[in-house]
Amino acid sequence: MKKAHAKTNRPAARDPVRTREALLNAAFAEIHRSGFRSADVDAILRVAGVTKGALYHHFENKEALGYAVVDVVVADIMRQKWQVPLRDAENPINALIAVLKGTSLEKHDIECGCPLNNIAQEMSPLDEGFRRRTAKLFREWQGAIAKTLREGRAHGDVDQGVDPDQSSTFLIAAYEGYISLAKNSQNGADLKAGLDAMVRYLDTLRVQPTDRLQASRPPRS
Amino acid sequence: MKKAHAKTNRPAARDPVRTREALLNAAFAEIHRSGFRSADVDAILRVAGVTKGALYHHFENKEALGYAVVDVVVADIMRQKWQVPLRDAENPINALIAVLKGTSLEKHDIECGCPLNNIAQEMSPLDEGFRRRTAKLFREWQGAIAKTLREGRAHGDVDQGVDPDQSSTFLIAAYEGYISLAKNSQNGADLKAGLDAMVRYLDTLRVQPTDRLQASRPPRS
DNA sequence: AGCAACATACATACTAGTTGGTATGCTGTC
DNA sequence: GACAGCATACCAACTAGTATGTATGTTGCT
């Protein structure tokens, strides 16, 4: 009996779940391009194919919509990219390298940057609700990498000298930094070079011969 | 007849240089806090102690004011913090470490983040004028560090295995990354830990005994 | 005197949010 | 099992506030 509405991206009449998702997806795209404050609500409605009434039925205001975008859409993107591949990986270093190599070098993605970092940078000083939400996602991200490294260390794939928390934070900082630089230069080669540097760093975290000093691994306690 | 308005921060009557500087400084502060697009022109005027007429006498529009802020104020901040100390440094590694240690851990500075990166992140995808200007400053910054490292290598203070360009870009990416994370967490200890990690990395760039393999130095060609 | 350097008041445009109303589908009742 | 009753889902037009930018007037140097 479910209405099989066909081709448009406009949600079928009376399909609140679809409507809500259409709004979230459209809002995410608009926010990703323009930032939250400059995100045009009317543009979101046009893409979602609904009107103001629908929006303000599902969300109290623009801020609540933005919160939901972070809680649902951005959170899902990050978890799909990082947590899921790391969760059931045989070798953590290989898995991390694979994730890095999976980073898009598409023009559009480079120009828009990291959605999580974008919102965090824009809203952290201005809105505690956004700040807490993005900080939570950063913590989850950092914790997932640290956990993987810790397990890899126990399993003999990661060197004992590695501090999982420091290395994890370092990886995230470098990753976001390179993405930021590439967003500015609009040059995919810059991001590629940065990711390559990170891959080389990750290789240094593998188990090393114990007789060799390892002074040159940056993040250690 | 000269109105001897003494105590306010309002520029002296008929002092165009002062007026222009007051506008630039007020605009920088406002943009640093709120970003360019959400920067309130009236708030800038209030802080600068002038009116719309003065603003639009000196600048064609808000965009031109923003461009000037980047070209003058932000450029000066970056050069004072990096280029100047590096220019006449005896030891480049020591100088870079000193610059890092000079990074403010004040609450206000952590919450606002790096002015250059802020504007670059916000405006790069939206305005080519801003993008070119910020990209130029990043290039200058990157070039200055690379030059220092190159000279240090020739002088015997930096290891021959170091690629000045890659290491320089890496330093900037990590620096901006850590600042971004701290801006989000609003935790000065996070930034401190990141800077410490960078200092440890910088120490690995010093001349090393040649018989030791140095696989674990991230940015190399 | 005449132009640069401002101030004041106002026009114009945009945009988040509201209001009042309509259509749809579920649910309990007979 | 059908229909009254009702809550949910949505629409279109409007409002109120805010933002940039402008038109015009005034003041002070040189």
TrEMBL record, chains A, B:
Does the entry feature the keyword DNA-binding, yes or no?
yes
Domain of life where this protein originates: Bacteria
Which SUPFAM superfamilies does the record associate with it?
A: Homeodomain-like, Tetracyclin repressor-like, C-terminal domain
Instruction: Give the annotated DNA-binding region, as residue ranges.
Output: 40-59
Descriptive protein name? TetR family transcriptional regulator
Locate the HTH tetR-type domain: which residues? Answer: 17-77
- The question of whether Transcription is a record keyword is answered with yes
Pfam families from the UniProt entry: TetR_C_13, TetR_N
Alphabetized UniProt keyword annotations: DNA-binding, Transcription, Transcription regulation
Entry's Gene Ontology molecular function annotations: DNA binding
Region forming the signal peptide: none
